[in-house]
Amino acid sequence: MRTNIIIDDELIKEALKITGIKTKKEIVNIALKELIENHKRKNLMDLKGKIQFDEIGQSL
């Protein structure tokens, strides 16, 4: 999907510098993927103690 957005130039410059990634597009895509993964991980951690799992059988 093509989208025009205004992004803080300093954030982009720093991200390009510290990661070695060459394009703004790749920086944004990676940042979005990491944001999604972090939220999924947080959501899983929020379930800690709320869900009880049975032990997995030895036959596996």
What are the key terms here?
single chain; 60 residues; mainly alpha; 2 helices; 57% helix
Notes on the structure:
The chain has 60 residues and is mainly alpha-helical. It has a domain at 23-49. Helix content is 57%, strand content 0%. It has 2 helices and no strands. The protein has helices at 9-19, 24-46. The N and C termini lie far apart (43 Å). The mean pLDDT is 88.
What's a quick, concise take on this entry?
The protein is mainly α. It has helices spanning 9-19, 24-46.
**Unreliable spans:** none
Helix and strand element order:
HH
Indicate the structural class. Answer: mainly alpha
Biggest β-sheet: count, sense, barrel?
none
Distance between the termini: 43 Å
Q: Estimate the global geometry from the Cα principal axes.
A: elongated
Number of helices: 2
How much helical structure, as a percent, in the residues? 55-70%
- Number of DSSP E strands: 0
Question: How confident overall, as mean pLDDT?
Answer: 88
Radius of gyration: 19 Å
Query: What is the percentage of strand-forming residues?
Result: under 5%
List the helices and strands and how they pair.
Blueprint: H1 9-19, H2 24-46
